[in-house]
Structures are given as structure tokens and as C-alpha cells.
Write a structure and sequence with these properties.
alpha/beta, Enolase-like, domain 1, TIM Barrel, 2 domains, nine-stranded mixed beta sheet, three-stranded antiparallel beta sheet, 13 helices, binds magnesium ion
């Protein structure tokens, strides 16, 4: 079997919040045996520029190096493209592009061998995974945020996360009293038993002493974790914050490859590590990151806030992890989550089932791709 063609598609859907950054890159790899694989790079950026840059990397850089390769040589291809990515900086957009290709190759391998991807990753530890409903703060009306989360609790979810805000001006994190009040209101509406996560996001930049103070203020609402309270580059700050804070600290969605994650793991910079398969290097690399984190007995809850392809890849990943206990499940309105695949993912009593179909186990709605693709206009 040989790789025949690679298509990089930029999709964008209308979103209620700029934090849910609508653009993503979908990759289709076709083989000479008629098997096609699907992958995704989480190329969120407000003006879609990351998606178009990743598309250019794939079409001009990666595709000529992929054509004619046996798609089952996933690791050989991974290392070949990673090495070539030095021209793009070995991180960021280059690795989004590599992530999309890697996921598509695993999808091809599963379809070729008539097995779900998790079997090729070594088999599954579980048939389902607890998920948290991942939502965006409405800081103008925290009560409506609370009610939105409550809707998922009534469906059986046991964990809900709120993050960011709907606009830069109305971001969470701008005002200590207002932030605490929002968390208080939401906790009251969700009730005491629900795991409630708070994601500061990157619309604000907190300093270490400020983050320590805020973690202390949120402690009385028994939050499950505080996510990205510091800038993504401030690993020293994270190390100190994680040591000082009684509230768990989570981060990692902005890190790439095992080399990027190495220090976060061996220095125990966070309590909860959040690599993203469609950002950090695909299933191959995030599996390696998870294995490294396992050596340090670190909790890993993969990040995922893009499309249903990302959810599928995440499910195969967590199925294969010995210590996975929780996964992000984006629940904001988006056709890329709810309509992109023929059988959209639905949680049952707060759990998502591990897909058992061949490859990633998903089938795309081509008409939805056509409706939302923006790279042909
Ligand atoms: Mg986050």
C-alpha cells in the first residue's frame, strides 16, 4: 500500500465565543488501495491564519515527502516529517500539521487491518471514559453559565469545566471579586458533588503571586483544578504554584512533543497534564508523552476543544492509557462537534464509549465539510 494523495482542508464554523476559536485543519490521506485516513490539527487562531499556514506546510512540505510511502510505516514517517519540520521551527503550526497526518495514518492502519486504533496502540484498558462537559464562561451572566452546566449534570455528567469568556473585554480573570462571584454562583447551581474545573485561559496573564491568591480564594468552592492560571512559558511559576496551591493546577495544551513536555513531567510542574493529540504531535507522540508521565505517576487528562475527529483520536488514546480517568468533552455549540461525523459522540451518564469501529471509528459528513470549508473561497 502506498500513499497516493493528501488533502488539507480548512474548516470554520460560527461560534458564540472567540475563545472557542472556530478554525481547524482536517487532513485526508488517500492510498492506492482505496483506503483513506482522516486526521485533524487543532489550528485555532482568530483569523484562521494558523489553519492556512498548516495547510501550506502539508501541501508544499509534507505531501511531496509522503507520496509513495507505505502509510503503515507510521513511525518512520513521523520521524521523517519531524526532522523536516526544523524548517518550520519544530513546534507550533509544524506540529499541528504533523499531528493531523499522524492521526490520519493511524486511521488508515486501523482500516487496513480491520481493527480499531486502540487495538493497534496495544489494546484497551477500558470500554468507556468519564468525561467533563467543557464550556465557556458567560461573565455577564454567570447564572446562565451555571444553568448551562446544570443541563449536563441532569444528563448524568459528573464534571463540568468553564473557561475563558466570550470576548476579550468580558474574559474570566480580569477582576478577582467578579471571578470569585462567578465561581460561587456556578458552584451553587451545580451542587457540591460535581467536579468543577476553572480554566483561566489565555485572555489574561496572571502573575505567580496573583495566581496563588486566586487559587486560595477558589479553594472554598472546592474546585477540581485551576487550569492555565499562568502564561504557557512560565514553567518556573507553574512549579512554584503547584507546590504552594492546595487546588490542583492543570496545563499543557500549549506544549508540543515529548521534548517540550519532558520538563513539565520530570519537574512536576503541574498536577494535571493536558496534552492535545491534534496539537502536540498526534497519537504517536502523545502516547509517548503519556508513557513518560506515567513514569512520574502524573495525572494526564488530554485536552480537546476542536472537532469530533479530535474526540475520536482522544478516545483511542485514553483507552490505551493504564491510568486515564477523565477526558475533556467540548459541549459548546459547534457543527464541527455535533454534525461533522455521521454518529456524533454522545455521553451516557457522563461517560463516552471507546469507539470499536475500524480505524478511528468515525465517518465524516462530507456535506458538513463542504458547508464549512473556507479554503476554496
Ligand atoms: Mg484550556
Amino acid at each position: 500500500m502506498k500513499i497516493k494523495d493528501i488533502e488539507a482542508i480548512v474548516v470554520r464554523s460560527p461560534e458564540p465565543s472567540i475563545a472557542s476559536a472556530p478554525s481547524s485543519l482536517i487532513v485526508k490521506i488517500e492510498t492506492d488501495e482505496g483506503i483513506a485516513g482522516i486526521g485533524e490539527g487543532c489550528t485555532h487562531s482568530e483569523s484562521d491564519e494558523a489553519s492556512f499556514a498548516a495547510k501550506a506546510i502539508i501541501e508544499r512540505g509534507f505531501a511531496p515527502r509522503l507520496k509513495g510511502e507505505d502509510p503503515l510505516n507510521i513511525q518512520k514517517i513521523w520521524y521523517k516529517l519531524y526532522q523536516y519540520s526544523e524548517w518550520y521551527g519544530r513546534r507550533g503550526i509544524a506540529i499541528y500539521a504533523l499531528s493531523a497526518i499522524d492521526i490520519a495514518l493511524w486511521d488508515i492502519a486501523g482500516k487496513y487491518l480491520h481493527q480499531p486504533v486502540h487495538k493497534l496502540l496495544g489494546g484497551k484498558f477500558r470500554d468507556k471514559i468519564r468525561v467533563y462537559a467543557s464550556l465557556i464562561f458567560n461573565m455577564d451572566d454567570p447564572e446562565s453559565s451555571g444553568k448551562e452546566g446544570r443541563k449536563y449534570v441532569e444528563q448524568g455528567f459528573t464534571a463540568v469545566k468553564y473557561g475563558w469568556g466570550q470576548t476579550w473585554e468580558k474574559a474570566f480573570g480580569l477582576d478577582a471579586d467578579r471571578d470569585e462571584e462567578a465561581v460561587r454562583i456556578i458552584r451553587e447551581i451545580l451542587g457540591p458533588k460535581i467536579d468543577l474545573m476553572v480554566d483561566v485561559g489565555r485572555m489574561v496573564n496572571w502573575s505567580l503571586p496573583y495566581a496563588i491568591k486566586m487559587a486560595e480564594r477558589f479553594k472554598k468552592y472546592n474546585i477540581y483544578w485551576l487550569e492555565e492560571p499562568l502564561p504557557q512559558d512560565d514553567i518556573e511559576g507553574y512549579i512554584m504554584l503547584t507546590q504552594k496551591s492546595d487546588v490542583w493546577i492543570a496545563a499543557g495544551e500549549g506544549e508540543y512533543t515529548r521534548w517540550g513536555f519532558k520538563d513539565w513531567i520530570i519537574r512536576r510542574a503541574v498536577d494535571v497534564l493536558q496534552p492535545d493529540v491534534s496539537k502536540a504531535g498526534g497519537l504517536s507522540e502523545v502516547k509517548r508523552i503519556c508513557d513518560l508521565a506515567y513514569m512520574w505517576n502524573m495525572m494526564v487528562v488530554p485536552h480537546g476543544f476542536s472537532t469530533a475527529i479530535n474526540i475520536a483520536a482522544n478516545l483511542h488514546l485514553v483507552a490505551s492509557m493504564p491510568n486515564a480517568s477523565l477526558l475533556e468533552f467540548r459541549r459548546t455549540e459547534s457543527p464541527l462537534i455535533y454534525k461533522l461525523v455521521k454518529r456524533p459522540f454522545e455521553a451516557v451518564n457522563g461517560y463516552l464509549a471507546i469507539p470499536d469501529g475500524e480505524g478511528l471509528g468515525i465517518e465524516l459528513n462530507e456535506d458538513v465539510i463542504e458547508e464549512y470549508r473556507i479554503d476554496r473561497r
